[in-house]
Every structure is written in C-alpha cells, then in structure tokens.
Amino acid sequence: MKIISKIALVCLLATVFSQMFAQNWSQKREVEMKIEGEPFNLAELGAVIVSDGETIKFLHVSDAAQRPAAYRDIDAKSDDEVLMMNGKRIRDTATLKKMYDELAIGDAVKIGVRRGEQMFILDFPKIDPKDAPKMMMRMVVDDGSGNTDEMTFGAEDIFPAMELQMLFTMEDGKLIARPTHEFKPGKINGLDIAEGDVITAINGKTIKSLDDFREAYAAIAVGETVKLSADRNGKTVSSNFKKPEPVAGGGRMMIKRESN
Predict the structure, then answer these.
(1) Does pTM surpass 0.90?
(2) What is the percent of the chain with per-residue pLDDT over 70, rounded to a whole number?
(3) How far is CA 86 from the centre of its chain?
(4) Would you say 170 and 38 are in contact if contact means Cβ atoms under 8 Å apart?
(5) All residues at 6 or more sequence positions from 147 whose CB lies less than 8 Å from its CB, including other chains
(6) Is 182 within 8 Å of 9 (Cβ atoms)?
(7) Which domain range does residue 123 map to?
C-alpha cells in the first residue's frame, strides 16, 4: 500500500550556490502539485525530482551556468518526466534514490526522460559530493489555515514525517528537527522535540546521516515505541513515544523561482 506523505510545503525558494558565484533566478515559476514520497535532490544538475503518485518529474533544474562545467550541457528542464535510470523503469523517487546511492563516484548516471513527444537519455557521471553545488531552500509551511512558518536550510536532504508534524533535514552533517506550524508540544505523548534539535540516535542506533534515520524509522512499526535522543543546546533530550499512523492524503507544493 502506498502512503502519500502530506507535505504541506507551499512555497520553496531555491538558490544554488557554487564556490565561484551566486545567482538569483531571473524568472518566476509557480507549481502546485500533490507529492508522494520524498523529493530527490540530483546534485549534478541542482535539480529536485518529485512524484505525484502517477508521474515522476523534474520539479526544478538549475540554470546551466550554475552547474559545474562538466554538467552544463546536460539538457534537463523543469517538468521533464523521468522514465528510467540505467535501464530500469523508475516508478517512485525512493527507487531512484536507492539506485543513485548505490553508484560509485564517477559511475554513469543515465536517466531516460520524456519531454512532450520526445524521449531521450541524460548521460553524466556521478559527481563527488564535495564538488557539487550546494542548494539552499527557503520553505514556507502552511497547514491550510492561512498560518505559515518559514524555514531556510541547506538542501543536502530532507525527510518529511508529517505524522509527527516534523521535517528532518541534513545540515552541515547534522540531522536537524524542523517542526511545522501544525506541531504542538505534548500532542504526541512522550515526544519532546524542538526547533533546531540535533537528532543523535533512534532506538539505540547512532544517527550519522539522514539515511540512517530514514531506515531506522521505517523499520519501526506503527504503534511500536520510538526512542529518540537529541542534542539541545549541549544538553541531551530523550523522547519515548508510540509511532503514529502515517498521514494519508495529499499535500501541495508550490515552487517559486524569482529575482529580488
């Protein structure tokens, strides 16, 4: 059974920085769509790939000038549909991420895409993370009531756990908790997480990456105990709570790319 994450991320302003320049968007584009699963960040193209449950597409692709020189001629555009990767049909972003993560630096990444009536292959080597442009995201999270929260963080990766009213993001090698506007302390009995907490362990497993957290959290069944350890301003904070049911139903995401 597929669970649709309710990602109420209504605005995301992304600017990609390289070591040599920072450039603002010269155009404005807004998109509203239901998001299923997690967005996948393709570092080589400064791109965000998402699924709406039926199609997988590039939601955002950085301008060629903002990419490393070896990737400037890759012809990817926003709204290109992703069909395959390295000869395998892609039906969700989790599969895409898993296949990508299994590749070694320098291995060929071949993504089959469809643009209108055209179908073609994007072919490039997997980049060394230290050479990849860094994406910064400014997100406005809306619970539908008109109230919004704004967050800015490095988009190394993001894991939405909307049943906890929480986003977890990797920032400077640390897993950071980012509560959404819907989050209310005490709503989930035993859950003690605050903005900016650094998650250090889950059910006794040390967290060194978002994948560590994602896999450990996914292995816990609904209703089972989740034990989180976090660093809050130098002090260890512990949470002990029952894993809630995932949030069913769609969310919408609006992407804005604009100049100052």
Answers:
(1) no
(2) 70
(3) 22
(4) no
(5) 181
(6) no
(7) 9-132
